[in-house]
Amino acid sequence: MIYPGISSQVEMTDIATPYTLWRYTRNYRGAYEGWLLTPEAVSVKISNTLPGLANFYMAGQWVQTGGGIPSALSSGRTLVQNLCERDGKKFSTVTP
Asked: Does residue 74 sit within a domain?
């Protein structure tokens, strides 16, 4: 055992199933990753704005093809880069 005695320190365990994800998010069949990467899906441009809502932008796994945390992070970064460009500000980031 790598961490002896750790189980006695656990107060609660939570398990998520596809049903749990569906119940929380209403994602199709409890999907946790976003869009299925098919040749057709890769070429689809998903808007990160909504008509009629000024200065409203979306980021996340449903805004670009792929899915999960990498897509959510990438769409957020791209959005901030675009906003910086629009506002004439320099985009910069620091990697720890």
From this structure: yes
